[in-house]
Amino acid sequence: MKFPRKYSLSEIAKLLDVSFVGPESFPITGFNEIHVVEEGDIVFVDHPKYYDKALNSKASVVLINKKVKCPEGKALLVSNDPFADFNKLSIHFNSFKKAAGNISDTAIIGKNTIIQPNSFIGNNVIIGDNCLIHSNVSIYDNCKIGNNVTIHAGSILGADAFYYKRRPEGYDKLLSSGSVVIEDNVDIGALCTIDRGVTANTTIKKGTKIDNQVQIGHDTIIGENCLIASQTGVAGCVIVEDEVTLWGQVGTNSGITIGKKAVILGQSGVTKSVAGGKTYFGTPIEESRLKLKELAGLKQLLKNQKK
To answer: For residue 84, which of 168, 201, 167 has the smallest C-alpha distance?
Structure first.
């Protein structure tokens, strides 16, 4: 997420009530999670296992729970609780704003777009031309919908990321400041849920078609002209490249990539990144021909054992 203006290191340190390492005037332009962080951003880290990854990332500032050697050209914000202080940034720069009606006055609705009764359109939502939003759809604040998009009844765009830190007293939620972007000519079925990014966008690219009862996790990017069948669950931070087909009840791990034109057969568990242009099946997932050959071999082995 980008700040509304450039802030100095000392300004952010004062806001969070933390110490800092680096020039007071060191410029900061936003804050982001590690997988989408850019130059000028703050990234947080609170476990030694991930210190090097954060310190060597594109982030200009690292919000960290230990004073370490600061890499050249970067700055540190030293905090007792980076997770909580990252949430402070979300609250300060993107606090929740109560809606005044079913369709916000700040929403922008394009020409010839139809919004059926009982739908909710949040603050600063942008919906393009020739869209059809069926009844009981909820589109949370700051979502962007392209042209010629159809969203069927009961679907929800922009719910919070499923992201928690376990503490002795229970689970602490990482607040979401990102949004959802739906590009042109996308169809979204009934009762689908597309979560917003933690600090960036969850994106469905142009021409993709999504069946009913599909879950798309935070910060995931679905490519162009994909087909996603019913009851599929795509975890957070997944990249699904162009023209991928996910058949019914497919599930994925987080942080993986599914290559261009891959086909994932029904009820498969995508436990790892897979190359494009191939068909896959099973849990753990393998190329379908190999997996089916393995199953046939196992069946024959069991048959021989019974003799």
So the answer is: 167
Delineate the domains of the chain, giving CATH numbers in brackets. 2-93 (3.40.1390.10), 108-290 (2.160.10.10)
Is 152 in the active site? no
Mean pLDDT, 10 residues at a time, over the chain (307 residues)?
Answer: 95 97 96 93 95 95 95 96 96 92 96 98 98 98 98 98 95 96 98 97 98 98 98 97 98 97 96 96 88 80 73
Pairing state of beta strands 279-281 and 286-287? Answer: antiparallel
Q: How many CB atoms lie within 10 A of CB 299?
A: 10
CA-based nearest residue to 178, from 205, 159, 193, 192: 159
CA atoms within 13 A on the CB side of 66: 12
Task: Name beta bridge partners: 115.
Answer: 133
CA distances 171 to 165, 168, 224, Å, are 6, 8, 36
Order of strands across the sheet that contains 215-216: 120-121, 138-139, 156-159, 193-195, 215-216, 233-234, 251-252, 269-270
Question: pTM higher than 0.70, yes or no?
Answer: yes
- Write down the H helix ranges in the chain: 9-16, 51-55, 82-93, 288-306
- Cα 122 to its chain centre, rounded Å, is 19
| Phi, psi (deg, nearest 5) at residue 197 | -70, 160
Place of tokens 């879950």: 215
Q: What are the two backbone dihedrals, phi and then psi, of residue 289, each rounded to the nearest 5 degrees? A: -65, -40
